[in-house]
Design a protein that fits this description.
- This protein is α+β, with helices and mostly antiparallel strands and 166 residues long.
- It has one domain.
- It is built from five helices and eight strands; from the N terminus they run E-E-H-E-H-H-H-H-E-E-E-E-E.
- The strands form two sheets. A five-stranded mixed beta barrel has the order 2-3-4-5-6. Strands 7-8 form a two-stranded antiparallel ribbon.
């Protein structure tokens, strides 16, 4: 059974995440191949993310999730994602207002982040990579990212449940 922890109190948890440029991958292996290709093509850069919820799954649940990421899971994701900034001056501003004012644009890029849901194995016997989900307001893993500290260009193209085997 999934264990859900919301991170609404205490210090924020930040991470840099690589997301694929092509979204909506059903299988984590396809998703990771896209991340790898984007990095090699220099068509990707890490995104600053704030972990707002953690989903801990058994190994079997994690493996099932990693091959069915487009399934609706409202109880897990609740529409999390998009882009945010906590800077007061940017609150209630439209993207048009921000993008047409150089000062606001700089402020946005310096302070913006993506709220994500971390999906991980509850039993950390294998410290395999977690999946960071940006639903963009939906209830499925619209964008599934990986920790940018992992060198995906060197990772094997053969994986088991989204975990490089070599």
């Amino acid at each position: 059974m999934a264990q859900i922890t919301d991170h609404t109190e205490g210090p924020a948890q930040w991470i840099l995440v690589n997301f694929p440029r092509i979204n909506k991958q059903h299988h984590i292996d396809d998703n990771d191949a896209e991340i790898r290709a984007d990095i090699v093509a220099r068509d990707s850069f890490p995104e600053r993310c704030k972990i707002v919820r953690t989903i801990r799954l058994s190994n079997d649940e994690f493996d099932l999730f990693s091959v069915s990421m487009l399934d609706d899971r409202a109880e897990w994701f609740d529409g999390t994602g998009g882009s945010r900034s906590d800077v007061e001056l940017l609150q209630n501003k439209s993207w048009h207002d921000i993008s047409t004012d150089l000062g606001l644009t700089r402020m946005w890029y310096a302070s913006s982040y993506i709220p994500v849901v971390r999906v991980m194995r509850a039993a950390r016997q294998w410290a395999g990579p977690d999946i960071y989900v940006n639903c963009e307001g939906h209830n499925y893993a619209r964008y599934a990212g990986r920790d940018a500290r992992v060198n995906w260009t060197l990772a094997s193209t053969t994986t088991q449940g989204g975990v490089p085997t070599s």
